[in-house]
Amino acid sequence: MNKDVKSIALQLCTCTWIEIMTGAGITLYMLYLQSYMLAALTLALFAPLIAFHFVLTKMSKLDDCDCIKQ
Questions:
Q1: Which one of 3, 6, 8, 16 has the minimum C-beta count within 10 Å?
Q2: Domain count of the fold of the chain
Q3: What phi-psi label fits residue 34: left (phi over 0), alpha (psi between -120 and 50 degrees) or beta?
Q4: pLDDT band at residue 68, thresholds of 50, 70 and 90?
Q5: Residues spanned by the domain of 12
Q6: Burial of 27 by CB count in 10 Å (0-12 exposed, 13-18 middle, 19+ buried)?
Q7: CA distance 32 to 39
């Protein structure tokens, strides 16, 4: 149980999750202000950055698996 809480806490503090929450917060705030163009711009700016981090995380996990097998 303790290990699960620790891994969840580490995931929430990673750069990717902070970026996701920041992008979602800014987008929702822009929607609240009815500034739809800025909300779309926020999504357009944060989406590639978040996708890049997910790709790097996936590649990192694949590299870790390759090292274990060899």
A1: 3
A2: 1
A3: left
A4: low
A5: 2-69
A6: middle
A7: 10
- Per residue in 5-58, pLDDT (tens digit) is 766 666 666 777 888 889 999 999 999 999 999 999 999 998 998 888 878 777
Whether pTM > 0.85 for this model: the answer is no
Q: Which residue has the tokens 């590649």?
A: 59
Kindly tell me the sign of the dihedral angle through the C-alpha atoms of 25, 30, 33, 36.
Answer: negative
**What are 28's two structure tokens?**
């929702």
